[in-house]
Amino acid sequence: MKESTEILISEQTIKSRIDELAKEIMNDYRGNPLTVVAILTGSLVFLADLIRRLELPLRIALVQASSYRGKTTVPGTLHVQADLLPDLRDRHILILDDILDTGRTLSHMKEEISEQGASSVRTAVLLRKKGRQVIPMEPDYCGFEIPDHFVVGYGLDYNDEYRNLPFIGILPESSGQG
Ligand code: XMP
Q1: Please, are residues 76 and 68 in contact by the beta-carbon 8 Å criterion?
Q2: pLDDT digit of tens for each residue in the chain (178 aa)?
Q3: Contact between residue 91 and residue 119 where contact means Cβ atoms under 8 Å apart
Q4: Rg (CA), the chain
């Protein structure tokens, strides 16, 4: 890594918050079977950590969605590749995303999955950026509200790098914003 990344949320803080989120989710679903639909690629670390704390009959499904290509921190067209999704009819669905920014990805996915006949559809995000949302929607579970910085680590990337950082960091200015 060329320049050190400023830590916004430490590994330990993320761990404690995920413990709390898992308790909230288990309390709400009360032993009912759940399918967690994770939006790749950014949510993969969140998915791995959260599901190991969920004591529920659980299935995992994956969907690829992206609005950022290569060296940019400005969102472009939303691309969704849903062909990995299993049959979600009559299932309780929890859609998982790394970050709620404009709200386009999560609202699109929620609509698409509801149309497939799920019994219920809820959403969980690890992060929510303040002052950025253009599509009004409230996630059912949210880890942290953060200021409007481009963040990396714990699954989140810039140009497909930094995903392996164990904390959430602020992308160094010199990495080429915009
Ligand atoms: P929307 O705007 O659809 O965005 O709510 C959600 C998706 O945009 C990506 N995103 C980021 N990725 N650092 C990242 O690495 C960020 O600060 C950031 N803001 C948005 C992310 O893929 C998310 O799923």
Answers
A1: yes
A2: 456 789 999 999 999 999 999 999 999 999 999 999 999 999 999 999 999 999 999 999 999 988 766 677 777 778 888 777 889 999 999 999 999 999 999 999 999 999 999 999 999 999 999 999 999 999 999 999 999 999 999 999 999 999 999 999 999 875 654 4
A3: yes
A4: 16
Pick from 99, 104, 110, 177 the residue to mutate for probing ligand 1's pocket: most ligand atoms within 8 Å of its CB. 99
Among residues 49, 97, 98, 101, which one is catalytic?
101
Q: Which residues partner with 95 through β-bridges? A: 37, 123
- The strand order across the sheet containing 79-81 reads 79-81, 58-66, 34-40, 92-100, 120-129, 141-146
Is the model's pTM score more than 0.85?
yes
Distance of alpha carbon 177 from alpha carbon 160, whole angstroms:
14
Query: Is 150 close to ligand 1, i.e. is its CB under 6 Å away?
Result: yes
- Verify whether residue 101 is a known catalytic residue: yes
Which domains, ranges and CATH numbers included, belong to the chain? 9-149 (3.40.50.2020)
Q: Which of 1, 2, 10 lies closest to 169, judged by CA?
A: 10
Ligand 1 atom with the smallest distance to the CA of 66 is 22
Give residue 118 CA to ligand 1 midpoint distance, Å.
Answer: 25
